[in-house]
Amino acid sequence: MNKFCVSLTCAKDNADKATVAFVVANAAVASDKETMVFLSTEGVRLAAQAYAEDIHEEGFAPLQELMQSFIEAGGKVYVCSPCFKKRGLDETKLVQGAVIVGGAKLVEFLSVDGGSSCITY
After folding, report:
1. Are 63 and 57 in contact (CB under 8 A)?
2. Among positive and negative, which fits the CA dihedral 99, 81, 11, 47?
3. CATH number for the 3-120 domain, one of 3.40.1260.10, 3.30.40.10, 3.30.750.200, 3.90.550.10?
4. How far apart are alpha carbons 19 and 12 in whole angstroms?
5. Which of 8, 89, 98, 112 sits at 20 to 30 Å (Cα–Cα) from 82?
């Protein structure tokens, strides 16, 4: 398996989990894994521009920097479409690299070409 998925359901409601999720995602992409972060439920808020600017857990890089590093390293950020819409967020103001998708994209990533390991925060 050369793919790795981080499923993230938290944002400011649990900044510690959100931060650690992107630390792990960065480690995976740095290990030459095709890595995807799937944002769902409250986690979709991280895809909104400027939302993560003030999230900085002690002992870690600021979340916005972790997200940017992940995307620059080739990581993918997929955002659950129904979750995003439910929260009334603006699809025209996504962070660079985020893509709004349906659940089928997650299923495809987890199951095609040998599947993928997945961890959830």
Report:
1. yes
2. positive
3. 3.40.1260.10
4. 10
5. 112
